Amino acid sequence: MEEALRNQSCLAAASDTVSFLVCLFREVEDYLSFLEYLLWVFTPLAVVFILPFLIVILLYLSILFLHVYKRKNQLREAYCNNLWDGARKTLATLWDGHGAIWHGYEIHGMEKIPDQGPALIVYYHGAIPIDYYYFLARVILQKGRTCHSVADHLLFKIPGFKLLLEVFSVIHGPQEECVRALRNGHLLGISPGGVREALFSDETYPLLWSKRRGFAQVAIDSQVPVIPMFTQNVREGFRSLGTLRLFRWLYERFRLPIAPVYGGFPVKFRTFLGDPIPYDPNTSAVELAERVKLAVQSLIDEHQQIPGSILCALLERFRSKRKAP
Predict the structure, then answer these.
(1) Share of the chain above pLDDT 90, in %
(2) Do residues 133 and 47 share a domain?
(3) Which of 17, 191, 192, 218 could hold 212 in an S-S bridge, CB 3.0 to 4.6 Å?
């Protein structure tokens, strides 16, 4: 303290440039000495906390390797049949392992996904739809099928994503292309809320679908069933600051999806698949859209604590059985 006051008085009393530079140099030297002291004190403490964390990472990587190794025969067979089939199954194994390790990921109702034939899967969009990635991985591994997906056009502008999107059959989403995929017998996943729901929904889990009915018209034109889907605690894994007025204004005014997302918490994820809504030629797109929305909302009401709690979602990792709703 005395040294700092002395340096300040030195700077104030400096009468020429040389004197000023000398005093400034002494002050910088004092600050550097202080920083050196902080590093000397806190570096050992940082190492003490970081090293155990690295050990945990190595343990999780080892578990991830075991997940891949457990499916080595399936992977070998997939690579023999088709290069991209093998690549998809390898990445699916990695993502499935990540979901199992980090979120204890579960799917309830997988039997509702047909082993063959088309179906439209409509889901709630989290701040980051990592639960949907886990779902896609599980479908590949358990059903042996690739589920096509509709994504926002912004995803196609990210450098380096083109090949990934092609291999996993991600499309931009014109209705004609969606109908074509379903008529060719594929599964198709879509979130009517899209980017708006991802950024501006919150821990109360409102569905921000506005008046979107295109997905319903796709199901009608393709004459396929619609399967509602929701993942418990997806908003507790990652959250968005989109509820702040500035980010909402920027999106509404300029369509800039720049609301920061934070989280990555290892909360419990459970994906629930509702009963398929069959094709009915007498149902309009407006009616079907409302019916699907009510089905997804029913899954939220039944399986999600409102408002969501990160702490409670973390504690779910230590419960061996799911509580009855």
Answers:
(1) 52
(2) no
(3) 192
**Structure tokens belonging to residue 288:** 């079907």
Q: State whether 183 and 52 are in the same domain.
A: no
Directed axis angle between helix 285-303 and helix 214-222, to 10°? Answer: 110
Burial of 199 (0-12, 13-18, 19+ CB in 10 A): buried
Residue 34, in any domain of the structure: yes
Quick one: pLDDT at residue 88? 87
Summarised one tens digit per residue, pLDDT across range 168-221 is 899 987 899 999 999 999 999 999 999 999 999 999 999 999 889 999 999 999
Digit-coded pLDDT (tens) for 282-313: 999 999 999 999 999 999 999 999 999 999 99
pTM for the structure as a whole: 0.78
Where in the sequence numbering do the catalytic residues fall? 125
Could you give the CA distance from residue 36 to residue 20 in angstroms, rounded to a whole number?
Answer: 24
Is 207 in contact with 280 (CB distance < 8 Å)? no
